[in-house]
Design a protein that fits this description.
five-stranded parallel β-sheet; eight-stranded mixed β-sheet; FAD; 30% helix; EC 1.14.13.-; globular; alpha/beta; FAD-bind_Monooxygenase_sf; 14 helices
């Protein structure tokens, strides 16, 4: 039946008058999770719009050598789709992507997904109370839009003077060119973030020379990884309670750690000492060790996990340039400290557009302004989901929902609870036959954001380092300053007092461009 519904909607799209109740953007963890939750809520009138040709999101795009997750596998999976067959404590990209493919098939999501269908524009129609969605496969309209594009989807490459003149190969870690053979090449890796510390040891043995350009060193801890034995996997299959216990222990340990990050940064001293010991054991050269030692408190930037990054830097064919890349002159790469290196290929491990997500430029709200314009002084969304002036638009992994030490899947599932209740509230408001929409009140968004920023002052992320958690104004608009249990609690239900209820007459076809409607606001006490 679901497949028939999906096919019927596609036929309608051909006629140019398609309307769906919910349009989901993206098919990573957030988008697939939203699709599963919609089906569980009995909603089949939805589509998932995916710009690529396969599901997976960041785990489809990031296929660079050595790519793996830094969250334990049994915690980095949906609670409703446990995987007893994870091969390692920290599984690699191929296994995570295969897991997402399996979730897609297990829950019958493929009929709802439109591949190679990039969203080019979103515009709120106040008269019809719906979103007009422009895509690469034609337009449609939707009562509700769920943006699950994720913050780690669009790569950030710095503007380096002369880069266009480089005669060799250039690519970002999330757009890895697997057709380019690095063997015997002089390779420059730019950046020392989570991707770079996995790439460096993976390619070091095969390249002629590897140069790492480090603008700021990172704190690196040992990676407590090992294969999960066949006995453990069989046990998790035959006795599901053991799998649940393992997940619960992983979750509980990380919940207990949160206080040190959010309230008592001084308690991280022991962890910092462990990181220093890890560096000292692997890197014997005092000058190199000094260059790799951060001058900020551990946790201020993302803590990285690796057992082979430091040893790779100590190999004879590896050089560390403790300075950022400043400019390029042909094949010569010049660092800010004047160091000059010649390379055949440049790999950027410079992160993503987290605080200026491109999707925000394509969303035009009720006031005729884009989400990017509304967020030019900093991102803000009620409970990480709703931005004022953008009715019936919800974000999965929105502002201040990131985590510094646990699994983002826990945050995603909490936001799916919020999405489900949001749709129930809309259904109840429309029970009289009239159409309704919810728009987050500016006062509610501001109050929520003030509360978050007040709490943020005590956190380790605000202790003075420059990180991708912070926006241009120095505000942390990325990370959640609490436990995942607390986030689940504050997103369990939609509080209608935080929203304006927009109403319109409901006796006309919502896809009719000539439809007339009356907008009203209800003050909900």
């Amino acid at each position: 039946m679901a497949e028939q519904d999906a096919v019927g909607r596609r036929d309608t799209a051909v006629r140019g008058r398609e309307h769906v109740r919910v349009a989901v953007i993206g098919s990573g963890f957030g988008g697939l999770g939203a699709a599963v939750r919609l089906r569980r809520e009995g909603i089949t009138d939805f589509v998932v719009l995916e710009r690529a040709g396969a599901v997976g999101g960041t785990w489809r795009d990031n296929s660079y050598p050595g790519c793996a997750c830094d969250v334990p596998s049994h915690l980095y999976s949906f609670s409703f789709a446990p995987n007893p067959e994870w091969p390692r404590n920290f599984s690699g990209q191929p296994h995570i992507r295969a897991y997402l493919e399996r979730v897609t098939d297990t829950f019958g999501l493929r009929p709802y997904i439109r591949f190679n269908c990039e969203v080019t524009s979103l515009r709120w129609n106040a008269g019809a109370l719906h979103w007009e969605v422009g895509t690469g496969q034609g337009p449609l309209t939707a009562d509700v839009v769920v943006s699950a594009t994720g913050p780690l989807s669009d790569p950030r490459i710095p503007d380096i003077p002369g880069l266009d003149s480089f005669p060799g190969k250039v690519f970002h870690s999330s757009r890895w060119d697997h057709d380019y053979d690095l063997r015997g090449k002089r390779v420059a890796v730019i950046g020392t973030g989570a991707s770079a510390i996995q790439i460096v040891p993976a390619i070091q043995p095969e390249v002629e020379r590897l140069t790492l350009f480090q603008r700021t060193p990172a704190w690196v801890l040992p990676r407590m990884d090992r294969p999960i034995s066949a006995f453990e996997r069989r046990l998790h299959v035959r006795v599901p309670a053991t799998r649940a216990l393992r997940r619960g222990l992983l979750w509980g340990i990380r919940e207990l750690q949160v206080g040190a990050f959010t309230k008592r940064p001084n308690e991280l001293g022991l962890i910092q000492a462990l990181a220093k010991s890890h560096l000292r054991k692997a890197v014997k050269d005092p000058a190199t060790r000094a260059a790799l030692t951060p001058d900020y408190r551990i946790g201020c930037k993302r803590i990285l996990l690796s057992n082979d990054f430091y040893p790779a830097l100590a190999r004879p064919n590896t050089d560390l340039v403790a300075s950022g890349l400043k400019e390029v002159h042909g094949s010569a790469l010049v660092a800010a400290d004047g160091t000059e290196v010649h390379a055949d290929a440049i790999v950027f491990g410079t992160g993503f557009r987290v605080i200026d997500m491109p999707i925000a430029q394509r969303v035009t709200g009720a006031n005729g302004t884009t989400l990017a314009e509304e967020w030019q002084d900093g991102m803000a969304a009620l409970r990480g989901a709703s931005a004022a002036g953008f009715p019936n638009f919800l974000t999965i992994i929105g502002p201040n929902t990131g985590l510094g030490n646990s699994s983002m899947i826990l945050i995603i599932e909490a936001q799916l609870n919020y999405l489900a209740d949001y749709l129930r509230q809309l259904t109840a408001l429309s029970a009289d036959g009239g159409r309704a929409a919810l728009d987050a009140r500016p006062s509610a968004v501001n109050a929520w954001n003030r509360h978050l920023q007040d709490r943020m002052r005590r956190t380790v992320w605000n202790t003075g380092c420059d990180s991708w958690y912070l926006d241009a104004n120095g505000r942390n608009t990325t990370v959640w300053p609490g436990t995942t249990g607390e986030f689940r609690k504050v997103t369990r239900r939609v509080d209608l007092a935080e929203y304006a209820v927009l109403r319109a007459t409901g006796d006309q076809d919502p896809t009719d461009p000539n439809r007339t409607a009356v907008d009203t606001e209800e003050a909900v006490a």
